Amino acid sequence: MTELMSSGIELMVVGMGIVFLFLTMLVVAISAMSSVIQRYFPEEPVTSISIPVTQNSATDASYIAAITAAIHQYRNTR
């Protein structure tokens, strides 16, 4: 029985070591790819685009009323 437990523990340690090694290599690879991407393809600054906003209070009110009614109905059925 002791030999069986020893083999089981050895197998567990080897398996956990392989998983830990794989995850460590994965983190290193992702970090390396991220630094390469940031070095050769830097993000361009975002310019703000002014989009004209039209205010239609009747449409906004009807959307808000429909959403409120849907939420109320959902909460009542659940």
Could you characterize what this model shows?
The protein is mostly helical and 78 residues long. The chain has a domain at 1-43. The chain contains two helices and no strands. The chain starts with a helix and ends with a helix.
The helix content is over 70%
* Global geometry: flat
Element order, helices and strands?
A: HH
Compute the number of strand runs. Answer: 0
What do the pLDDT scores average to? 88
Head-to-tail CA distance between termini: 55 Å
Structural class: mainly alpha
Give the radius of gyration. 29 Å
Count every helix, treating DSSP H or I runs of 4 or more residues as helices. 2
The fraction of residues assigned to DSSP E strands is under 5%
Which ranges are low-confidence, i.e. pLDDT below 50, for 5 or more consecutive residues? none
Major sheet description = none
Q: What's the gist of this structure?
A:
With 78 residues, the chain is an all-alpha fold.
Feature tags:
single chain; 78 residues; mainly alpha; 2 helices; 0% strand
Question: Mind sketching the topology for me?
Answer:
Elements: H1 2-40, H2 57-77
